[in-house]
Design brief:
Layout (H helix, E strand, L loop, with lengths): L1 E6 L2 E6 L9 E10 L2 H8 L10 E10 L9 E4 L9 H4 L7 H5 L10 E5 H6 L1 E4 L5 H4 L2 H14 L7 E4 L3 H10 L3 E4 L3 H8 L11 E6 L6 H8 E9 L11 H7 L2 E4 L5 H12 L9 E5 L3 H9 L5 E5 L1
Helix pairs in contact: 6-7, 6-11
């Protein structure tokens, strides 16, 4: 089968062995997979053994499971699930769970076929109707990440929120925040595009919560200038270097800096429901690339030419 591998810093489509079902789980024929910012970080870091691609849609072609899934089911698949038993799970810090960190799909979503475990089927796999748009379905995992961030922010009723950075994640985050949500991007074209989603910026407001969706350290001073005293900054992406929030800003202004990394199964379930019921607008965000053009998809994403790449297998 065809699969993508990072070779000498560049993505290559290589021949790989089709996964074999040896225990409870399933084999999924991949229809397509969204390109995540975390994939790009791994690519830029040259992580040649990294598993790439986790915003997966496809069809179950083999299965041995105690669940209700069957061959022929169209599904959306996410990559990690927790044990629900450890100290991290007990305090709902699921993405810190060791089971969560080592669970994954193989060999990665940019492949013709992947293997998933029974744990995936129980926690991170959701059925799709026959005619549902696969590209829209690929947003379940990234939207779930936003759902988790909003839950971790624990916002009060009427809180004004700002998504700082209006790429695909910023557009999702602002929608996940619901009422009184705003967005800002230094790129005027992205600010203009966000208006189509009902997302605007009010320079006269100070915000109860800032969601850092830009992935740039340059956004940190902007966040500090726009957050209310006593407000919250939700760190949702890695940035270049080792930049951060200064101690005295946090101390004197009583700011809360909250990290939010990856979704729990409940967030995936909620995201699946919202997308299935068309509660989230996704039109015009994705650009479709064939598998052989995945390096171009990465380059176009990095250059800001597109919002979100969907790799059609």
């Amino acid at each position: 089968m065809k699969s993508v591998k990072l070779v000498n810093g560049e993505l290559k489509v290589v021949k790989a062995q089709k996964p074999v079902l040896t225990e409870l789980g399933a084999i999924v024929k991949v229809e397509g997979c969204g390109l995540c910012g975390s994939d790009i970080v791994k690519i830029r870091e040259g992580s040649e053994n990294a598993i790439l691609g986790h915003e997966i849609v496809g069809e179950i072609v083999e299965i041995a499971s105690k669940t209700d899934f069957k061959v022929g089911d169209k599904v959306v698949v996410a990559h990690h699930y927790p044990c629900f038993e450890c100290e991290f799970c007990a305090r709902e810090s699921y993405s810190m769970c060791s089971v969560f960190k080592c669970s994954n799909v193989y060999p990665g979503g940019f492949s013709e076929f992947i293997s998933i475990t029974e744990g995936h089927l129980e926690n991170t796999v959701f059925k799709l109707s026959e005619d549902f748009d696969f590209v829209f379905a690929s947003f379940v995992e990234p939207l779930a990440c936003c759902e988790r961030a909003v839950r971790r922010a624990n916002l009060g009723e009427g809180a004004n929120t700002l998504s700082l950075g209006l790429g695909s994640i910023g557009l999702l985050m602002a929608q996940a925040c619901g009422l009184n949500s705003y967005g800002f991007d230094v790129n005027p074209e992205r600010q203009k595009f966000a208006k189509l989603f009902g997302i605007e910026f009010d320079p006269n407001l100070k915000y109860d919560a800032i969601f850092m969706t830009s992935g740039s350290a340059k956004a940190i001073p902007t966040a500090l200038s726009l957050v209310k005293d006593g407000g919250k900054i939700i760190v949702f992406s890695s940035v270049e270097g080792d930049s951060g929030y200064t101690n005295n800003e946090i101390y004197y202004r009583e700011l809360s800096i909250i990290g939010s990394y990856s979704p729990a199964p409940i967030d995936l379930k909620n995201a699946h429901s919202k997308i299935l019921n068309k509660e989230i607008r996704l039109e015009g965000i994705s650009t479709i690339y064939p598998l052989q053009d995945i390096q171009k998809a990465v380059d176009d994403t990095l250059s800001g030419k597109i919002y979100k790449a969907y790799i059609k297998i």
